[in-house]
Design a protein that fits this description.
single chain, about 300 residues, alpha/beta, 10 helices, about 25% strand
């Protein structure tokens, strides 16, 4: 089974406007609220892919109850820990040119008792877990090295640990030697402190990360696809051109594809095709963490994966 961790979930409210102008009244002609947070997006896509998954993390207040009702209506197992403070609300405003502006709340404070309750719950769930996905930021109150602790727990139980985060939480999480990380170019630059000018720069940084014990580094390249680097091979992914509606949640959808491929022990090429097809399908949907299975199957046949020749 796949377990998905979301420490800082949110209600994601999407507004479509004609022209977004700072300091003026905005009238939305379309509003779409969804249960969000990176891990919840992963879980929603996995459910559409036919998987029975565990969803863990923290939920509180009216917003938490709303998210709980939404994920349960999708048939996703709710194993969230209830907290005292209110779960956050995040806003995405898209204008007629598909330019996106996001306003992200910091979220609630998690106290020590709530963390202990979460851990007691998690230990039981991990007994039947083969892949654990940890996505997104850490909520306030959670130690900044918590992904390291979570990754070590996975290593002890022989669970594949997929980490999709950024900043300090990613830096600490790398010390647990995750099975897979999936930064984009900007996150990789922030992680390394180096400027990326081309794919070979990406590979140079990824190889440094592999030397720390991380098994696979997969870097999103947006419309230019993806590149995966491990100690044995480098794969470059080429994706077809699509009509993009909303890119928010596309990275999470890719992580869902990765986790399913890893769970089912698919080869890397098939796993990369599934991951990218899920990300593309989400980009064509107005909702976050949403895919169309027919589109996914069509995209898989049109995605090219080849071994990249790297000149060190």
């Amino acid at each position: 089974m796949i377990t998905v961790v979301t420490f800082n979930p949110s209600i994601d409210r999407l507004y479509k406007v004609e022209n977004f102008e700072i300091g003026s009244v905005q009238r939305a002609h379309f509003v779409n609220p969804t249960a969000g947070g990176k891990g919840i997006n992963v879980a929603k896509v996995l459910k559409k892919l036919g998987q029975d998954i565990n969803c863990v993390g923290f939920l509180g207040g009216f917003n938490g109850d709303y998210i709980k009702s939404k994920i349960e209506s999708l048939g996703i197992k709710d194993n969230f820990t209830k907290i005292e403070e209110e779960t956050r609300l995040c806003i995405n405003i898209i204008d007629r040119n598909n330019v996106s502006t996001e306003v992200l709340e910091n979220g609630p404070y998690i106290n020590q008792n709530e963390i202990m309750e979460f851990e007691n719950n998690l230990f039981n769930i991990l007994e039947n877990t083969k892949v654990l996905v940890a996505s997104g930021s850490l909520a306030k109150g959670i130690p900044k090295d918590y992904y390291y602790k979570l990754g070590n727990l996975c290593n002890e139980k022989n669970i594949k640990f997929i980490l999709d985060s950024s900043g300090e939480s990613l830096k600490f999480g790398l010390k647990a030697k995750p099975y897979l990380i999936k930064p984009n170019v900007e996150e990789l630059e922030n992680l390394s402190g180096k400027k990326i000018r081309n794919i070979d720069d990406v590979i140079d940084i990824a190889k440094d990360i592999l030397n720390t014990g991380v098994k696979n580094v997969c870097v999103s390249l947006g419309k230019d696809g993806m590149i995966l680097i491990n100690s044995n091979i480098i794969y470059k992914v080429e994706i077809p051109i699509i009509e993009v509606v909303n890119t928010v949640g596309s990275g999470d959808s890719s992580i869902a594809g990765f986790s399913l491929g890893i769970l089912n022990e698919h080869n890397l090429i098939d796993t990369l095709k599934l991951a990218n097809a899920c990300g593309m399908s989400n980009a064509m949907s107005i909702s976050t963490g949403d895919i169309n299975l027919d589109d996914v199957n069509k995209f898989i046949d049109n995605i090219e994966v080849y071994e990249y020749v790297y000149k060190s």
